[in-house]
Amino acid sequence: MFRTKRSGLVRRLWRSRAPVEGDGEADRGTHGSGGCCMGKATKVAKSNAGSEAELKALTHSILKKIKEKQLEVLLQAVESKGGARSPCLLLPSKVDAKVGQQSYSLPMLLYKVFRWPDLRHSSELKRLSCCESYGKINPELVCCNPHHMSRLCELESPPPPYSRYPMDYLKPPDSPDSGPSSSDTGGMTYSAPVGPSDSLALQESGDRAHWCVVAYWEEKTRVGRLYSVQEPSLDIFYDLPQGNGFCLGQLCSDNKSQLVQMVRAKIGYGIQLTREPDGVWVYNRSCYPIFIKSATLDNPDSRTLLVHKVFPGFSIKAFDYDKAGNLQRPNDHEFTQQPRTGFTVQISFVKGWGQCYTRQFISSCPCWLEVIFNTR
């Protein structure tokens, strides 16, 4: 039987759809046991044969109406799981599709089929700043590239009692092996030691107004030099098919720990750090959870900090400019600032820390980042 290129692309796309629970192929990093404070990651039961057939027929009929070049763009994004840079997929925003009793817009249907089967409403989504549709309201054509979107990390409110990280507990122990004091205590001081090459990098970037610097740590040891950031968006990754940014895989590390090596290999596509008008967002591009601690993720009047678990495909506003202004209070141990450094956000790959976990301090985590914001 003669098969067109278009039908071949459609079949490949359907085979690359997002798995649901029961497929046996579900991304093991997408869901998992609850952390201290996490983005919602609802498991979806495998659909019955009738609804699966209906969804397949509907998806095929819609995809066959899309131009071949656009199908190739969609296939590139889906098969690379966002690792390859793919252009926007601009399609009519007002085309509706119906599955059973539920109606979905064309973008929502593609997001459900290729990223998040449990997606219920567009309010759960955040468009990435790399997308042409970013910041536009109700355009006639909207980008339907599933990997130009992320899920919003919804924080538990109020958080469970066990997730609280009391300040008294955060005081560093009187021992020489306590590790970097501000990292262990959650304090906002600049804990990454600055060497001659770091100072030169900061001086060189001073004229270009860097908005943050990034330090990479393996347990209690910083690896590589400080990475100064001037561009509005930065990819931090271990292995990315296409991309520029802070490649952790190119850093020379003497750490022979099997756990560190295992976690390092799981960083994969890593995270995307983006400076936006309302603050700094972190998008988890990897296949495993990341864990974040930031003062602006908590109540301004709180004397405790939370460690937030962010699942793959989710975004979280890690640093809020408005809240940061309210936190700049004199004589406040938690939010003390040094001349150049501003506030610090800590991000651990794969392994969490705090009272919910066996690791009490981030310096016990195998692979983690310290993002120091320039608030001048």
UniProtKB/TrEMBL annotation:
Top-rank taxon of the source lineage equals Eukaryota
Q: Which SMART domains match?
A: DWA, DWB
Entries under CDD domains matching the protein: MH1_SMAD_7
Q: Which GO terms describe its molecular function?
A: I-SMAD binding; metal ion binding; transcription regulator inhibitor activity
Q: Name one GO cellular component term.
A: cytoplasm
Region annotation (Disordered) maps to 164-194
One GO term under biological process is: regulation of transcription by RNA polymerase II
Q: Name one Pfam family in it.
A: MH2
Report the locations given in the UniProt record. Answer: Cytoplasm; Nucleus
Protein name per the record:
Mothers against decapentaplegic homolog
Q: Please tell me the species this chain comes from.
A: Acanthochromis polyacanthus (spiny chromis)
